[in-house]
């Protein structure tokens, strides 16, 4: 567990929170100072906390408390019991009140449990992973902090109006007096980007955290960052799929088309060169960047062994002669030590081996790209 930051907006203190809808839980009696920005996200153990909540539910480490009240199962209670936590939250709808009042479901209870989950994520059903994401990614919501902040802001309408001019969050906050309005637009919709566009889904969640820093309970901040970690681990970094068989099951020209499709999804304008007499590159890729253009020459090698350094140097020669900004050598195999040294020492040369290519394909084409090769390997 963690403790929330304080005072992100001048003159308006940030209420400590690790919770969402039931914000009475956020008012600790322990004198723990707010977590520094550089320490986010961090889970603090709650061993000494036994603060009564105003709605009659107590914090506890076990299912039985002496006074008979229902315990809030959270923090160290779950530490070391990943499967128990997972089985508990997976059986509850994320929008049901139990998901925020009976147990912790807005983020992983401890960093150790998150790490354990990420290590075992490759073998888990996608339906369970998506269900976890539904808990970590909140829908349209208003948290207790938003209501308290609104009350504070209404004491100075001039300042409130200035904030509304600069921030959509404060515009939404001003509309809370209207029925069916919420302070936060929500981010659960990014699940619809999965599995085809996991990098975009993760980017949205990270951007929401950045845009609303200091305006979210820290428990929800940690939940969004946990969601990013889950998306990256399951949909991008999970190379358990038989990518080698898939890449060697297509023709060299189809492999070039697949790489071209990859760079197109990364925002480049791509041109496939002719199958023969290609001038030392298979793909030309161009993208506008601040202050100019990035022009890449890409050479594709469908090898099972190692790419030799002479082939890397040949590509660099073409890059120099053509005046391109850089060259990329992509292979289904590996590279010799000389290739890796050249990539480290020369800023105009990049090398992508088979495992690195699989990660890029997962990231930009979705982890099910192996099942869509008929379409992905068509010429653009």
List keywords for this structure.
alpha/beta, 5-stranded mixed beta sheet, disordered N terminus, 380 residues, Trna Endonuclease, Chain: A, domain 1, globular
Could you please describe the fold and organization of this structure?
The chain has helices at 82-90, 98-101, 111-119, 126-136, 144-153, 157-166, 168-174, 198-211, 218-236, 243-248, 252-265, 309-322, 337-345, 354-365, 373-376, and strands at 58-60, 71-73, 269-272, 283-289, 292-301, 306-307, 326-331, 334-335, 349-352. Helix 4 runs antiparallel to helix 9 (218-236). The two termini are 49 Å apart. It is globular. It folds into two domains: 23-236, no CATH class; 243-376, Trna Endonuclease, Chain: A, domain 1, CATH 3.40.1350.10. The protein has 380 residues and is α/β, with parallel strands linked by helices. The strands form three sheets. A five-stranded mixed beta sheet has the order 3-4-5-7-9, sandwiched between helices.
């Amino acid at each position: 567990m963690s403790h929330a930051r304080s005072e992100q907006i001048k003159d308006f203190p940030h209420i400590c929170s690790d919770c969402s809808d039931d914000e009475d839980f956020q008012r600790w009696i322990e004198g723990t100072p707010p977590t520094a920005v550089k320490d986010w996200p961090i889970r603090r153990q709650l061993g000494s906390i036994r603060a009564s909540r105003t709605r009659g539910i107590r914090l506890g480490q076990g299912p039985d408390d002496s006074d008979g009240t229902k315990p809030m199962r959270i923090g160290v209670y779950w530490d070391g019991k990943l499967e128990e936590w997972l089985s508990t939250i997976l059986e509850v709808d994320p929008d049901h009140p139990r998901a925020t009042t009976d147990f912790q479901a807005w983020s992983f209870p401890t960093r150790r449990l998150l790490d354990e989950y990420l290590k075992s994520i490759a073998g888990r059903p996608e339906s369970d992973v998506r269900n976890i994401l539904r808990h970590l990614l909140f829908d349209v919501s208003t948290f207790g902090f938003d209501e308290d902040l609104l009350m504070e802001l209404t004491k100075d309408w001039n300042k409130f109006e200035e904030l509304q001019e600069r921030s959509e969050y404060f515009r939404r906050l001003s509309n809370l007096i209207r029925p069916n309005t919420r302070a936060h637009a929500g981010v659960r919709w990014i699940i619809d980007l999965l599995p085809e566009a996991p990098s975009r889904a993760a980017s949205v969640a990270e951007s929401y955290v950045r845009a609303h820093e200091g305006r979210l309970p820290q428990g929800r901040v940690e939940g969004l960052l946990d969601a990013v970690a889950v998306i990256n681990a399951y949909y991008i970094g999970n190379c358990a799929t038989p990518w080698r068989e898939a890449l060697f099951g297509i023709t060299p020209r189809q492999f070039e088309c697949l790489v071209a499709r990859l760079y197109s999804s990364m925002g480049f304008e791509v041109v496939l060169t002719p199958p023969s007499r290609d001038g030392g590159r298979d793909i030309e890729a161009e993208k506008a960047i601040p202050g100019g253009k990035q022009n890449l020459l890409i050479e594709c090698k469908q090898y099972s062994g190692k790419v030799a350094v002479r082939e890397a140097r040949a590509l660099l020669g073409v890059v120099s002669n053509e005046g391109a900004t850089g060259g990329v050598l992509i292979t289904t195999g590996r590279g010799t030590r000389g290739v890796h040294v050249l990539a480290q020492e020369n800023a105009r040369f990049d090398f992508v081996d088979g495992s690195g290519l699989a990660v890029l394909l997962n990231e930009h084409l979705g982890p099910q790209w192996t099942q869509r090769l008929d379409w992905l390997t068509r010429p653009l």
